[in-house]
Amino acid sequence: MDDLLFRQAMGTFSTGVTVISTEVDAKTHGMTANAFMSVSLDPKLVAVSVDHQASIYEEIRTARRYAVSILDDSQEEISKTFANQIRGKEQFAFATFRDLPVIPDALVHLACDVVQEIAAGDHTIFIGEVKDIEVNEEEGRPLLYYRGAYQALQ
């Protein structure tokens, strides 16, 4: 099977959209990710899959911490910024949660410590123990991704 067919098939699984972020040497780093999931309730674990070519890959390995910002449907432009589809990532004004950079007004912020790395092909899955959670009290709807396009709940 070819790569395009595989991508198309995986694109039929709709996902939420997150920005994964960390800080190393007082410099913030962020990446849009839809390869994110909850892993365990006890202990509270989540996972994110990061391409070895992504700039944030080494930063997470160095920091041993990352934040997850679950985006709402008004934050499509932010997602595109951190997916390197539009410019502005360097000047983005992050908020801070538990000494980690996060996306302001996201639906949820998670502060995680890396507890395990699993090499998986050209990616590494970073298992993070959730140290704290912040849920936005405003009513919001998640930003979704399906078949290569952003979607929103109706």
TrEMBL record:
Domain of life from the UniProt record: Bacteria
Record keyword Oxidoreductase present: yes
Annotated GO MF terms: FMN binding; riboflavin reductase (NADPH) activity
Pfam short name (any one): Flavin_Reduct
Flavin reductase like domain sequence ranges: 10-152
Keywords: Oxidoreductase
Protein name in UniProt: Flavin reductase (DIM6/NTAB) family NADH-FMN oxidoreductase RutF
Organism expressing this protein natively: Geomicrobium halophilum
